[in-house]
């Protein structure tokens, strides 16, 4: 028959003490690990700080001839004195940014509409015709001298009056009738007229009216006094 030995209160206390000791050792190991990490971090930060300090010193040495010690103080005082001005500038900057944000879609639409208008003008041939007009202008510049252009400018009023008179409805009708009659004449079938036959044609009413028109035209032409030339 086997007998079971029950743990005594002392054994239970020893086991509890061992468990607590294990936890303490674990905490000690954790503290040691954290201390090592802190030491490593401190070393890294120390090296970084030294490098940063050395770089800062080098950069400051480059600008040292151009900066005085009191400049920073003056700058700080100026910033403090102009705090309200800086605040207003920031407000205006924010307003400009908001305006730019609102105007951007409008600018895009305007740019798109402009491209469409230019494309439409291109399809209608404005650019090609414009190039031909430029070529014609080049020919005019090459053909006429500066003196010719100056005389043209001096006589521009007379030319415009002449064009105005030529574009009157009665003048256009007369020119159109003359051109229409000229088109109807077949010069290949025009008959030869002897002096006697020509004399008989002159006696016809329409010929007499034509001769009368020529006489009146020449009489008025000779009686017309041209305006004196401009000095």
TrEMBL record:
<feature type="coiled-coil region">
    <location>
        <begin position="14"/>
        <end position="51"/>
    </location>
</feature>
<protein>
    <recommendedName>
        <fullName>DUF1641 domain-containing protein</fullName>
    </recommendedName>
</protein>
<keyword id="KW-0175">Coiled coil</keyword>
């Amino acid at each position: 028959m086997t007998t079971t030995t029950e743990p005594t209160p002392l054994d239970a206390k020893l086991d509890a003490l061992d468990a607590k000791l294990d936890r303490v050792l674990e905490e000690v190991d954790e503290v040691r690990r954290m201390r090592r990490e802190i030491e490593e971090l401190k070393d890294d930060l120390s090296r970084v700080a030294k490098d940063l300090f050395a770089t800062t010193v080098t950069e400051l040495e480059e600008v040292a001839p151009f900066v005085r010690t009191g400049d920073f103080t003056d700058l700080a005082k100026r910033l403090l004195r102009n705090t309200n001005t800086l605040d207003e500038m920031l407000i205006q900057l924010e307003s400009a940014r908001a305006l730019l944000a609102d105007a951007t879609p409008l600018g895009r639409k305007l740019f798109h509409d402009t491209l469409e208008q230019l494309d439409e003008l291109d399809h209608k041939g404005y650019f090609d015709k414009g190039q031909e007009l430029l070529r014609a202008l080049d020919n005019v510049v090459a053909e006429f001298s500066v003196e010719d252009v100056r005389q043209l400018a001096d006589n521009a009023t007379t030319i415009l009056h002449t064009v105005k008179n030529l574009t009157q409805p009665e003048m256009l009708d007369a020119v159109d009738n003359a051109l229409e009659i000229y088109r109807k004449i077949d010069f290949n079938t025009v008959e030869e007229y002897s002096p006697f036959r020509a004399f008989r044609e002159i006696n016809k009413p329409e010929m007499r009216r034509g001769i009368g028109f020529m006489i009146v035209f020449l009489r008025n032409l000779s009686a017309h006094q041209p305006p004196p030339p401009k000095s």
